[in-house]
Amino acid sequence: MESIRRGNSKFYRAYEMKESLRLILRCTNRFDAESRLKSWLWWAAHSRIEAFKELAKKVRRNMEFILLHHFL
Prior knowledge:
- It comes from Bullifex porci.
- This protein has helices at 2-7, 9-24, 30-45, 50-61, 63-70.
- By secondary structure, it is mostly helical.
């Protein structure tokens, strides 16, 4: 991973963002997940990685639905 981080920072950032979102979705507390998700959304929207910028828009539009159904 260290060589990937040094050699291709964009790829490594994408991996970090993916893993961060995965951990957020494993949260058991809705308010903790919402807070972390809002931070993640800012990070993704400012990442300069188009796929994550688009994902952030979609998640932001559907955040209430995602949180509601994730914590039923």
